[in-house]
Design a protein that fits this description.
Mean pLDDT: 81
Helix content: over 70%
CATH class: Mainly Alpha
Number of helices: 11
Distance between the termini: 55 Å
Low-confidence stretches: none
CATH architecture: Orthogonal Bundle
CATH superfamily: ABC transporter involved in vitamin B12 uptake, BtuC
Structural class: mainly alpha
C-alpha cells in the first residue's frame, strides 16, 4: 500500500501520457513524420534551458520555463506546418532531423554555461516523473483533456489531413499547435526520450499487430501495451532503485522488440518448419 500511495501520482500522470500520446502517435505514423515528437521535445527542452540561463527559475512551479518552451515549440510547429506544403522540394523528415540537431546542439551549449548543466541535461532526456505532485497531474489532465476534446470534435478533418486527403495550412498548423502544447508539458514532466517512446512504440505495435483494425481498436491495443509497460517500469524502478524515466524507455523498447520477434516467428519461421515437417 505504501508503494502504491507513493507511485500513484506518477502512475496517474503516465496513464495520461499514454492516453494522449498513443492517439497522437497514430496520427504521426499516418503523416510519416515519426521523429516530429523527439524534434519538438528537444525544442521544448531547449526552451527550458534558456529559462534557466536567463531567468534562473529553479524552484517551485516553473512557469517561465514552460512559457519559454511553449513559445519555441509553437514557433517550430508553425514552421513545420508551413513547410509541409513544400515537402516535394525538401523532405519533412530532413527538416525535423535538422530541427532536432539544432535544438540538441543549442541545448548543450546553453547548459555548458550552467553550474548544474549535467543534471539538467539528464533531466531533459529522462525527466523526473517519479516525483510529480497531484497539482501537476491536475493541470496536465486539464490541458490534455482540452486538446482531446478539440481532436474529437474535428477528428474527421484531422484524420483526412494526416492521411494526405485534405492538405490545408490551417488544419496542419492546428494539429502541430495542439501537438506542441502536449509535447511542451509532457517533456517538462517526463523528458525527451520518455515522451518519444510513449508516443511511437505503442502506436507502432498497434499498426503492426492490428493493421486493418479501426482506429479505436488500434488505440485499445496500444493503450493496453502502454499501460502494462508503464506499471512494470514503475515497479522495476521502485524495487531496484532505478531512474523511472530510463526504466520506462527500456521496458517499452524491450517489449517492442520481443513482440516483433514473436510476430516474426509466427509469420515466417514456424510456417517454414511446419512445411518441412510435412
Amino acid at each position: 500500500m505504501d508503494v502504491i500511495l507513493f507511485l500513484f501520482p506518477a502512475i496517474t500522470l503516465s496513464v495520461l501520457l499514454v492516453g494522449i500520446h498513443t492517439y497522437l502517435g497514430l496520427h504521426v505514423l499516418e503523416r510519416e513524420v515519426v521523429f516530429v515528437d523527439i524534434g519538438l521535445s528537444q525544442v521544448a527542452a531547449l526552451g527550458g534551458a534558456i529559462s534557466l540561463l536567463f531567468f534562473h527559475d529553479h524552484d517551485g512551479p516553473n512557469y517561465v520555463s514552460i512559457l519559454c518552451s511553449l513559445g519555441l515549440c509553437l514557433f517550430a510547429a508553425l514552421g513545420l506546418s508551413i513547410l509541409r506544403n513544400f515537402e516535394k522540394k525538401v523532405s519533412q523528415e530532413a527538416l525535423i532531423g535538422i530541427t532536432y540537431a539544432l535544438a540538441s546542439g543549442a541545448l548543450i551549449l546553453i547548459l555548458d554555461k550552467s553550474p548544474h548543466g549535467a543534471e539538467h541535461l539528464k533531466e531533459a532526456f529522462i525527466g523526473n516523473i517519479l516525483f510529480v505532485t497531484w497539482n501537476t497531474v491536475f493541470i496536465t489532465s486539464m490541458i490534455y483533456g482540452l486538446v482531446g476534446i478539440i481532436h474529437y470534435i474535428f477528428r474527421k478533418v484531422f484524420w483526412q489531413s494526416s492521411r494526405g486527403k485534405k492538405t490545408n495550412l490551417f488544419w496542419d498548423f492546428l494539429f502541430y499547435f495542439l501537438f506542441g502544447i502536449v509535447i511542451t508539458f509532457s517533456t517538462h514532466h517526463a523528458g525527451v526520450l520518455v515522451v518519444f517512446s510513449i508516443l511511437v512504440i505503442p502506436a507502432a505495435l498497434a499498426k503492426r499487430f492490428r493493421p486493418s483494425a479501426s482506429i479505436f481498436q488500434q488505440l485499445l491495443f496500444a493503450w493496453s501495451y502502454g499501460f502494462v509497460s508503464i506499471l512494470l517500469s514503475f515497479l522495476l524502478s521502485y524495487y531496484q532503485d532505478l531512474p523511472a524515466g530510463a526504466a520506462i524507455v527500456t521496458t517499452l523498447a524491450t517489449g517492442f522488440f520481443l513482440l516483433l520477434f514473436a510476430k516474426m516467428l509466427q509469420e515466417k519461421i514456424l510456417p517454414s518448419i511446419c512445411k518441412q515437417d510435412q
